Amino acid sequence: MNKLNKTLSEVLDVEPIDYQTTEIVQVKTPVEDDAEFARTNIRDLISKGNTAIDNLLQVATASEHPRAYEVAAGLIKNLGDLNKDLLEIQKRKRDLDPTQSKGNSTTNIDKAVFVGSTTELVKFLKNNK
Q1: Which end of the chain lies in a sparser environment, N or C, as judged by fewer CB atoms within 10 Å?
Q2: What stretches of 46-116 adopt beta strand conformation (E)?
């Protein structure tokens, strides 16, 4: 308990309140959770695919078989598609999350305050008429 609370409690003749600090926990939305899950899986697949490509190219070079090169080319294409998918996840997440959309937000102004002199305000009002 801080000194101010203790002093106020003594002056007001009341029992002091003990405040407990609480931990703030960030809760992920389902969109964020699913996007993170998909992103993690795609990153793992890309990592494993890079290792597989290295091994497959060694096999293709050693065997000089056309089918081995065909399979390696297919795997390279699939990894390229996974990289595109990884970037697409961020775009879709931004589109689905209303808090991150920039162009669609509207702002309501309850009270507008003019900052300036009275002569500037009079000039502004005369120009609006």
Answers
A1: C
A2: none
Which residues, 6 or more positions from 31, have their beta carbon under 8 angstroms from its beta carbon?
93, 96, 97
Cβ partners under 8 Å of residue 18, min gap 6: 1
Could you tell me which residues come within 8 angstroms of residue 93 by beta carbon, excluding any fewer than 6 positions away?
Answer: 31, 32, 35, 100
Judged against a pLDDT cut of 90, whether residue 47 lies above it is answered with: yes
Segment 78-102 mean pLDDT: 82
Q: How many domains does the chain have?
A: 1
pLDDT band at 105 (very low <50, low <70, confident <90, very high): low
- Residue 46 within a domain: yes
CB under 8 Å to 56, separation ≥6 — which residues?
A: 68, 71, 72, 75
**Residue 68 lies inside a defined structural domain of this protein:** yes
Coil/strand/helix, residue 106: coil
Across the range 67-94, mean pLDDT stands at 91
